[in-house]
Specification:
With 196 residues, the chain is an alpha+beta fold. The protein contains four helices and seven strands; from the N terminus they run αββαββββααβ. The protein is globular and about 55 Å long.
Length: 196
């Protein structure tokens, strides 16, 4: 922590935040209208086993029909590439598969390692900005960005942290750690927000 006397040394480098820039103009030259924010639907699927790890699954989409089966199959096909090597921690992972409002699809993979640490890897499809070769939402490639998720993908993280502590770390009962209890303890379905 920086002592208070040292703060004045850097104060000349501090500047107030500027307001966000106006939306970028569209190809026609007029500003692109900002879409109003809306929460998305969050569904919970049963856990599966992949490459020796148990995978808890969350899907996020604005489509009430859910994520297309071809997108789901493609996402889970790349999943083994995104899992960490075993390290003695009970083999548990949770994923958030998000179908964007455009051509994009995103797979966020959060795996428990080193007893209490969350390891992250991600993949994307249909989003050239993230290195995808085309706009096909089922053509997943791994991403190298350190981004852990957008606002619609983050809600499961707090729940999963609390569930891991409750079932795997808290030493209140002789059956802890209890991987089976952890695997059945998921964030309830609903929307991605308005949960307080």
């Amino acid at each position: 922590m920086t002592p208070a006397s040292d703060v004045s040394d850097v104060s000349e480098d501090l500047h107030p935040l500027a307001p966000s820039p106006s939306p970028s103009p569209s190809p026609s030259g007029s500003p692109s209208p900002a879409l109003p924010f809306a929460e998305k639907l969050l569904t919970v699927l049963p856990p599966i086993e992949v490459a020796g790890r148990w995978i808890k699954r969350y899907h996020v989409t604005s489509d009430p029909a859910g994520i297309a089966p071809g997108v789901e199959r493609a996402a889970y096909a790349i999943l083994p590439e995104l899992l960490p090597a075993p390290d003695g921690t009970p083999p548990a992972t949770f994923v958030v598969l998000h179908r964007g409002g455009d051509d994009g699809a995103y797979l966020n993979v959060y795996s428990w390692v080193w007893d209490n640490v969350l390891h992250f890897r991600g993949a994307a499809a249909g989003q050239p900005v993230l290195g995808c070769p085309d706009d096909d939402p089922s053509h997943f490639v791994t991403t190298d960005r350190p981004w852990i998720g957008c606002v619609w993908e983050l809600p499961p993280i707090l729940h999963e942290r609390d569930a891991w502590v409750r079932h795997m770390l808290a030493r209140r009962a002789p059956e802890v750690p209890d991987l089976d209890a952890y695997l059945t303890d998921s964030l309830p379905e609903g929307t991605t927000g308005d949960r307080s």
